[in-house]
Amino acid sequence: MADPGSMIPEDVVAAILAHFPEEEFVADTTRLQEAFRRLKGSRPSLLAALSFDGAAILAKSEDLTGALDSLGKARYLRRENPDLCKYRVARSKLREYYRSFLKDLLDDAGLTEREIKEGASELSEIVRGLANSSVEELAQR
């Protein structure tokens, strides 16, 4: 079994979003970073591939930024509307990518599909919970 920390951040984020309950969600970059930081706090083995800047006032992960950018360039994830805070997940394409390429890789790293699905559901709840949080509230983590 491989070390989950040796996983590529893009693969883990893609797997989570492939199992995300909604095809659309609203979150600006700050709230999405905070949502993933909180998910890592409750599910460290799932997000071992992501590191966050502990010195930053607001949650910040270059790994997550790079993963989201890569998924956007591959057209698995799209940001919409003028403020670019509404995300649309190309779920059927992303699920096919997960089944074809990521499932076995992540299984070998010890990340089960059940754990990924549970993490995706928890992330969805966190994103919804942060929707009305102010930046000041996010900084008080």
What do these coordinates show?
- With 141 residues, the protein is mostly helical.
- The chain has one domain.
- It is built from six helices and three strands.
- A three-stranded antiparallel β-sheet has the order 1-3-2.
- α1 crosses α3, α1 packs across α4 and α1 crosses α5.
- 35% of the residues are buried.
- By DSSP, the count of extended strands is 3
Number of domains: 1
- Sheet with the most strands: spatial strand order: 1-3-2
Our Rg estimate from Cα atoms comes to 14 Å
Strand content: 5-15%
Mean pLDDT over the residues = 89
Distance between the termini: 34 Å
- By secondary-structure content and strand pairing, the structural class works out as mainly alpha
List the total number of helices: 6
Biggest sheet character: 3 strands, antiparallel
What share of residues is helical?
A: 40-55%
Describe the global form.
Answer: globular
**N-to-C SSE series?**
HEHHEEHHH
- Unreliable spans are none
Which helices and strands, and how do they pair?
Elements: H1 9-18, E1 24-26, H2 29-42, H3 62-73, E2 77-80, E3 86-89, H4 91-108, H5 113-130, H6 135-139
Antiparallel strand pairs: 1-3, 2-3
